[in-house]
Specification:
The complex is a heterodimer of chains A (134) and B (127). Helices cover 0% and strands 59% of the residues of chain A. Chain A contains no helices and 11 strands. The radius of gyration of chain A is 20 Å and the shape is elongated. With 127 residues, chain B is an all-beta fold. In chain B, the strands form 3 sheets. Chain B has a 4-stranded antiparallel beta sheet with strand order 4-11-6-7, with no helix packed on it. Chain B starts with a strand and ends with a strand. The chains are: A mainly beta (134), B mainly beta (127). Chains A and B meet through strand 3, strand 7, strand 8, strand 9 and strand 11 of A and strand 2, strand 3, strand 5, strand 9 and strand 10 of B.
Chain lengths: 134, 127
């Protein structure tokens, strides 16, 4: 017999539920654990690119997710995206010049790649989470 | 004192590798505050539009966003897509009060709806 520890959502019987979406937690399903979280700040050179490298110290290649904040801006933006100030019907994206190109990871490091199409150096802070082994 | 549940075949006592644990109080988890959706209608003569959802958490939260593309499939946002004569992309920004969804597109002959499905987590990005 397999023992189960489960917590159902409010209004759902924990004994009768079978849909994973009805549970807050269920021991039959793995969870994303925040194994490491951290932040790093670096300068992206004007009209250039930079790959920010962070040692993760884990014995496996982690699944990494992250957000970036450009110095002087009041919002976070995701990877695989330009940072934008807004949109305009006749322009489309009004870009800040910073592009968060990608996240990658290997056995030792996490890499965050940025472009800066502006004419001034810009600082970015990346908040990252290592959630699981790939 | 901690609470931990190991995966089948792994003894929970002494297990320290997070890969072998279903849950452990030594590690935080992502807990979501809300799941919702919002529709951004892109007028045919517009190249860029945005729409905001108010979360009012007072900090910049972790979010996950998916966008239903013009052919009806959900993709992980940010998205870049194209058809025979059309181009579209989407992204989002997160402030202490809002998630702002944006679309840039060209080539559509009719007003086009872009649906964003999103999860807002309690986790503070602390940015």
């Amino acid at each position: 017999m397999t023992n189960v520890i489960a917590l159902s959502k409010i209004g759902v019987s924990v004994l009768g539920a079978s849909d994973p979406n009805d549970f807050i937690f269920h021991s039959s399903y793995n969870t994303f654990k925040i194994i490491i979280e951290g932040d790093v700040t670096d300068t992206i050179p004007a009209l250039g690119s930079k790959t920010i490298q962070v040692a993760h110290g884990l014995p496996f290649i982690p699944l990494v997710t992250a957000f970036a904040l450009e110095d002087g801006k009041a919002w976070a933006f995701p990877p695989n995206s330009p940072n934008i100030n807004g949109t305009f019907p006749r322009i489309g994206y009004l870009k800040t010049g910073i592009v968060f190109n990608y996240i990658s990871a290997d056995e030792d490091y996490i890499y965050f790649n940025f472009d800066n199409t502006g004419v001034a150096n810009k600082d970015v802070t990346v908040k990252f989470y290592c959630l699981e082994a790939i | 004192m901690k609470v931990a549940l190991s995966k089948p075949t792994y003894p929970v006592i002494g297990e320290t590798d997070p890969r072998n644990l279903i849950f452990s109080t030594e590690y935080g988890t992502l807990k979501y505050e809300a799941k919702s959706s919002i529709i951004l209608t892109m007028p045919t003569d517009s190249l860029g539009e945005s729409i905001a959802f108010n979360h009012n958490l007072g900090y910049i939260p972790f979010v996950e966003v998916y966008m239903e593309n013009p052919v009806g499939d959900y993709e992980y946002c940010p998205v870049n897509g194209s058809g025979a004569t059309v181009l579209w992309s989407s992204t989002f920004r997160v402030t202490t009060t809002q998630v702002i969804f944006s679309v840039e597109s060209t080539g559509f002959f009719l007003d086009t709806d872009f649906t964003f499905l999103f999860f807002i987590f309690k986790n503070d990005l602390d940015l």
